[in-house]
Every structure is written in C-alpha cells, then in structure tokens.
Amino acid sequence: MTLTYPAELHYTASHEYVALTDGLAVVGITSFAIEELGDITYLELPPVGRTVTCGERFGTIESVKAVSDLYAPVSGVVRAVHGELVDAPERLAEDPYGIGWLLKIQLTQPEETQALLTAADYQAQLGG
C-alpha cells in the first residue's frame, strides 16, 4: 500500500483522519495506521446515535499484530457507521480515504477542528 495523506483532510496524533463537510466529520484511520497494523481482523464501532467526545475511545481495531483503540477526533453525535467494514474489516486497506471511512459525526463543538493536524503536520510527526 502506498502511504498517502490527502491535503484536504485533517489528522490526529493517534492516526485518525477527518474530512469536514457541512458540520459533518467523516472519520477514518490513515494509511500509516493500516500499514502498521497489518492484516485487520476485527473492527468495533459505536452505534448510530451515540455521543462521542473528542479524545475519548469510540471503538477498537484488531489485527494479526495488535489491538488498538480508536479515538474520536471531534465531539458530536454518530450519524452513520460503515457497517460493511465491521463485517469485512480487511477492506480498510483497499482505500482508507474512500471506502475506508468508519463514522460520520455531526459536530457539536466545531471549534475542536482547529486543533487537528494538517497533512504536512501529520507527516512531520511521523518523521517524514
């Protein structure tokens, strides 16, 4: 997999990405995270309607190498969950920034997005 970090997205230090559209945050994990995890075997996501808080755990991702928590990059209400990925988590590696989205969150505190990293900042954090 080619490691990419689209410039139009925002990132967290814990390797989630956010695409912002009209008060909605589409959340996924970066190609770097997927590469580090290896073959993904399990994905746990919150139900639609759950409120998530910025910085708090919202789910779990497991691979043949590790179990990792997923953290909310913003606060809000879960409006959609990518259920197909729960059934076939290995598909995350196919297109992390397209079909690989995990949640759609209706923002309750839009100012939190100002703390997210740019693609350049995220890459610098990775040492690249």
**Termini separation (Å)?**
17 Å
Question: What ranges have pLDDT less than 50 throughout 5 or more consecutive residues?
Answer: none
Sheet of most strands: 6 strands, antiparallel
Strand pairing plus helix content: what structural class?
alpha+beta
Residue-averaged pLDDT:
95
Order of strands, main sheet, comes to 1-2-3-9-8-5
CATH class: Mainly Beta
Helix content: 10-25%
Strand content: 25-35%
Q: Tell me the radius of gyration.
A: 13 Å
Counting DSSP E segments of at least 2 residues, the number of strands comes to 9
So, CATH architecture?
Beta Barrel
Order of helices and strands: EEEHEEEEEHEH
CATH-assigned fold name: OB fold (Dihydrolipoamide Acetyltransferase, E2P)
How many domains in all?
1
CATH H-tier superfamily: RNA polymerase II/Efflux pump adaptor protein, barrel-sandwich hybrid domain
Shape designation: globular
Total helices: the number is: 3
Protein name: Glycine cleavage system H protein
Pfam families: GCV_H
Cofactor: (R)-lipoate
Subunit structure: The glycine cleavage system is composed of four proteins: P, T, L and H.
Topology:
Blueprint: E1 10-11, E2 16-21, E3 24-29, H1 31-37, E4 40-44, E5 51-52, E6 57-63, E7 67-71, E8 76-81, H2 83-87, E9 103-107, H3 119-125
Antiparallel strand pairs: 1-2, 2-3, 3-9, 4-6, 5-8, 6-7, 8-9
Which terms summarize this structure?
globular, alpha+beta, 3 helices, 9 strands, OB fold (Dihydrolipoamide Acetyltransferase, E2P), 15% helix, Single_hybrid_motif, 128 residues, 6-stranded antiparallel β-sheet, single chain, 3-stranded antiparallel β-sheet
